[in-house]
Amino acid sequence: MPELPEVETTRRGIEPHIVGRRINRVTIRQPRLRWPVPPLDKLLAGQRVKSVSRRAKYILIEFANGTLIVHLGMSGSLRIVNTNTPSRPHDHVELCFGKQCLRLHDPRRFGAMLWTEGDPLKHPRLCDLGPEPLSNAFNGESLYRIAKNRRAPIKSLIMDGKTVVGVGNIYATEALFAAGIHPQRAGNRVSLARLEILVDEIKKVLDHAIERGGTTLRDFVNETGTPGYFAQELMVYGRAGEPCKLCGNQIKTRQIGQRASAYCSVCQR
């Protein structure tokens, strides 16, 4: 699944190509994604893109008459292509701006294109989300207030979108390793000082991943069709059975919240 850095990389990649541009054609090849695609051909005809922003893993494309809310699902991507580029299987929706198009490609159809004429942050899919992980609203004290009364594993807490948005399995795993915290440790058994370190590591790993273009997963390539470069730097994620890069102990894995969690039992306590 594209994680927050991949979504932010995509947002930054498409923004300069579409902001200020006027849509002259919309093609909907598959009207049923995770939810039915609204009649964008009627809603967006002649409309000009005002801005492209992000909330959690949603890309918000703002127009004068409303906002298009895009989610990439499990395997989706957005690409800028020339209008004469042949469509591929699973190219479900395209917005055309003169000689260029923005295409949504989604083999598993778990992605979404939603429309709202109101404040997009009040949309039902966005209104209950927690703070952005790179914002000042997410800090050690805010995480401590949530964790101090929770017995759930700390990894589950930081992957809960009501605690903080966009910290998926890869980045939660890497941040916990960097902070030296065992992913299974109960939230109420992690001190404020250690949570402050964890928050700092979450911000670092996400910032670095965005800088490097995201993490290469089987189904994800960035908007220009080239893979991200962060995967080669992973310390524990996907390395079960291999030696820890810090201590040499074998990386272990266990299921936490139905997700595989890699960790080092020596470096993480």
Structural class: alpha+beta
Helix content: 10-25%
The number of helical segments is 6
The total count of strands amounts to 10
Low-confidence stretches: 216-221
User: Which CATH class of the largest domain applies here?
Assistant: Mainly Alpha
Oligomer designation:
single chain
Shape: elongated
Sequence of secondary-structure elements = HEHEEEEEEEHHHHEE
CATH topology of the largest domain: Helicase, Ruva Protein, domain 3
Distance N to C terminus: 28 Å
CATH-level-2 architecture of the largest domain: Orthogonal Bundle
Sheet of most strands = 4 strands, antiparallel
How much strand content do the residues show? 15-25%
> On the 0-100 scale, what is the average pLDDT?
92
Descriptive account of the structure:
- This protein is an alpha+beta fold and 269 residues long.
- The protein has 2 domains: 4-122, Alpha-Beta Barrel (N-terminal domain of MutM-like DNA repair proteins), CATH 3.20.190; 140-263, Orthogonal Bundle (Helicase, Ruva Protein, domain 3).
- The protein has 6 helices and 10 strands, in the order αβαβββββββααααββ.
- It has helices spanning 4-18, 40-43, 140-147, 154-158, 169-179, 192-212; strands spanning 25-28, 51-55, 58-63, 66-71, 77-82, 91-97, 100-105, 112-116, 252-256, 259-263.
- It has a 4-stranded antiparallel β-sheet.
- Strand 9 (252-256) and strand 10 form a beta hairpin.
- Helix 1 (4-18) crosses helix 6, helix 3 crosses helix 6 (192-212) and helix 5 crosses helix 6.
- The protein is elongated.
- It starts with a helix and ends in a 6-residue tail after the last strand.
- Residues 216-221 have low confidence and may be disordered.
